[in-house]
Description:
- The chain has helices spanning about 1-10, 30-45, 60-70, 85-90, 95-105, 120-125, 145-150, 155-160, 160-170, 175-190, 190-200, 205-210, 215-225, 235-240, 245-255, 275-285; strands at about 20-25, 50, 75-80, 110-115, 135, 230, 260-265, 270-275.
- The protein is an alpha/beta fold.
- It has three domains: about 1-135, P-loop containing nucleotide triphosphate hydrolases (Rossmann fold), CATH 3.40.50; about 145-200, no CATH class; about 215-285, Arc Repressor Mutant, subunit A (Orthogonal Bundle), CATH 1.10.10.10.
Amino acid sequence: MKDVLWEIIEGNGPESIPQHVLVVGAEGTGKSYLITELAGKLATSGYHVLKFLYPHCNIVNADYIINKVDGHDGQQFVILIDDFDRMLEALPNDEQYRLRAFLFKKNAPTLIATSTGLYEGFSDYRAPFYDAFRVLHIPPLQKEDIAKIFSADSYIKVIDTEEFNEMLLKLGNNLNYIRSFADAYYENNRLDEALQTVIKKNERYFRYMFSSLPGVQQRALCGLAYSGETATSLDVLQATGLSASNIASALFRLEKQGIISRVGTKKRNVTYQIKDYLLCRWLNVTSDTDSLC
């Protein structure tokens, strides 16, 4: 992946509009780690680098970025933005259009951004950043890849236990989750307590993601979580009391945002699951969603 990004950056010529890249992957799959390493290589190779790495500040206007770049040679300038989807959520449409206009001209800097999913602003043809990127998906990590990244004693000691490996599949190879879970599980050797520790550590992210959704999508997501690890659209309908059209629309939006996924190939009464296992558990135990669900 890093080699592909490097080839794209080097291939953006001085008299051309640069090709920008969106790196997409689930939470904890190594997106931040990837572009942090890329920032170091760029800096030692003569590039000017403007980076907003997680947790970055909220950018409220395009001028903030444009002024940082102003005065540098565009061909040798690369902007790295982690969690670009979250940044856009806080950036008004007119500011997004100004930023896009700045990036899509000759000698503009190359933008390498990350996103936890294909945010609607990248796929809606009416949105400022529609069709703005070459999209690269980070593949799921394999067990041997994780072992190379982690050197902590806690991970090494628990990697061969059956209970840990069963949970590893549910955690979706999320590096942040696995690191926290390995530490907690190694400390007390109790699965439920270790999971609660990881959920508590990530509660701020869960709360932010949930509160950013429209009310109908919140209720549909709760209904899906309350119905079990997998549930049909009819189950969600019965759990929420929403109309069939509202449920269909909410599930469609949640799937498009990468929060839920389909199970199987049925075309009617489709079965869904929440992709983030810990988010599903959080929705079942937190009291913050009770009034909506």
